[in-house]
Amino acid sequence: MSHPLSETDIADLTGVAAKALKFDFYIFRKAYGLYYAVWATAIFLFIFLPNIIYYPAIIPYVPYIFLIVYMAILAVAIWITGRVFRNAAQIIGFKSILRGKRNDSPGSEILKALSITLFIVVIIVISIYGIDNIFEFLIFFSFLVFIMLSHWKNMALTFEKIPVEGFISLGSYILTLVMSLISIFVLKSQLDFYLSWIPVIAGWYFSAFYAIRSSRQFLEESNA
After folding, report:
1. CB within 8 A of 131, min separation 6: which ones?
2. Residue 8 vs residues 4, 17, 224: alpha-carbon distances, Å
3. What are the boundaries of each domain within the chain?
4. Helical pair 134-158 and 62-98, crossing angle rounded to 10 deg
5. Which of 72, 128, 150 is nearest to 136 (CA)?
6. How far is CA 193 from CA 16, 86, 166, 208, in A?
7. Model pTM?
8. Over the stretch 135-190, which tens digit does the pLDDT of each residue have?
9. Tens digit of pLDDT for each residue in 184-207?
């Protein structure tokens, strides 16, 4: 016959659960740092790769080289992103159990699947045709806004308080979107369009460093 738990037992179990949750946050925030680093690298390669690998002797094969390299970068980035958000889903579920309620969010899975599908389509189109007119740019820009909103939603679901690197990553992302719009519609300069992506690359690399460094705090608290 089971006996009801005493207040001390409940407090002990709550403490164990809280430490386990902090350890999960350590793993998650570190994974988020890796996520920022991978996508900062991917963005850099997506934007500047055409100028890096352009060589007259291989002009006939450039589109195929672009496509192969882009898909390889994308495959790695999506794999890491999938791991990050699987961890997020586990943490959200654990937090819900501690609060005494379930929080199944199939919408998040649908949103992630839609994001990945759209990203693959957009990268294929851009790698083959480039961004040569306003219509294609607007499609690309709309997709980037969609990714930004998805990123914010996932952080809000995962963290009770969005960490500093979250605001830095979003701020640099928004700055890049504004600068890219100005470069296309006002300055009409391809060079300025390339340069407009420097803020998000720098911001996400810094966010990666800060997230990984700050994750140690959760590890120390989980071992206290």
Report:
1. 137, 140
2. 11, 14, 19
3. 7-158+205-223
4. 30
5. 128
6. 51, 34, 24, 24
7. 0.71
8. 556 666 666 677 777 778 777 777 778 889 999 998 998 898 889 888 877 888 87
9. 778 888 788 888 899 999 999 999
